[in-house]
Amino acid sequence: MIEFKNVSKRYPNGFEALKNVNLTIDQGEFVAIIGLSGAGKSTLIRTINRMHDITGGELVVDGTDVMSLQGKELRRFRRKIGMIFQSFNLITRTTVIKNVLTAFVPELPWWRATFGIFKKEEKIKALEALDKVGILDKAFVRADQLSGGQQQRVALARTLAQNPQIILADEPVASLDPVTAKQVMDDFLRINRDMKITVLLNIHHVDLALQYATRVVGIRAGEIVYDGPAQEVDQKV
Ligand code: ADP
Ligand code: ADP
Question: pLDDT tens across 58-115, in order?
Fold first, then answer.
């Protein structure tokens, strides 16, 4: 599903954030990437949907050489991959359902978004996605009136409505309190198990990674230093 072959990433200033990374992730896995701040976790995640370009090696996702994609092909490829951020990235001054609708209707004309013109089946799909993460009752509430955990669930619903094969999450629970963080991790777990979606997330709480992920990848100074089952992680990673 996701295959890094000797991948390196050098930023324009010359800094090498990934060095010779070899990593294969299969369909349906739940993988947590752990490591200290600055280790390269975010860079690694963001190469998968080409938010960052790799500068060496090869990256193959779902049979496609990611670096070969351009324009329309790249946009279509990105639609298969859901992306979740620490900061939720919602349109805060609009309703929850509109956040979901504008995210998944491909190439939505601006006037449909502006005037709220959506088809019945689009609305049903959006409501189903909200139901899957337990916030159907918030559909018509403004996004900025929700708690952090609820906002992260809206972000999850947005990606679910686009039927992704993979969900990438860059520190999805870093700004949440411990109880809410666990609830959001429960959502990821349910999505992974019930919908067979591959989940790859960065997390700096090692204990949460160990509790939820089936596989943990430890990264230090751009190199993979651990890759294996959660139960056997060396706490020094
Ligand atoms: P975010 O993940 O919030 O979008 P960025 O992608 O801007 O943040 O940056 C990710 C990390 O890389 C941060 O720790 C940031 O300090 C660091 N960073 C960003 N740009 C540079 C740079 N030009 N030189 C060194 N470090 C950088
Ligand atoms: P992590 O997610 O593990 O905190 P990052 O992937 O954000 O680490 O960053 C890895 C390293 O690359 C850091 O040292 C960071 O400063 C550097 N970095 C991140 N973005 C940039 C950038 N745009 N330019 C230069 N260096 C960067």
Answer: 999 999 999 999 999 999 999 899 999 999 999 989 999 999 998 888 778 888 888 8
Nearest CA to ligand 2 atom 24: 11
Count CA atoms closer than 13 A to 85's CA, side-chain side.
7
Q: What is the dihedral of CA 72, 77, 80, 82, to 10 degrees?
A: -90
User: Tens digits of per-residue pLDDT, 3-24?
Assistant: 999 999 999 999 999 999 999 9
Contact predicate 44/33, CB 8 Å: yes
Answer yes or no: is the C-beta of 15 below 6 A from any ligand 2 atom: yes
The ipTM, to two decimals, is: 0.74
Q: Check if the beta carbon of residue 69 is closer than 8 Å to that of residue 135.
A: no
Atom 15 of ligand 2, nearest CA residue? 38
Output the CA 97–ligand 1 centroid distance in Å.
Answer: 31
Structure tokens at 9: 């990433």
Query: Which residue has the CA at smallest separation from atom 5 of ligand 1?
Result: 42
Of 9, 11, 55, the residue with max ligand 2 atoms within 8 A of its CB, to mutate for a pocket test, comes to 11
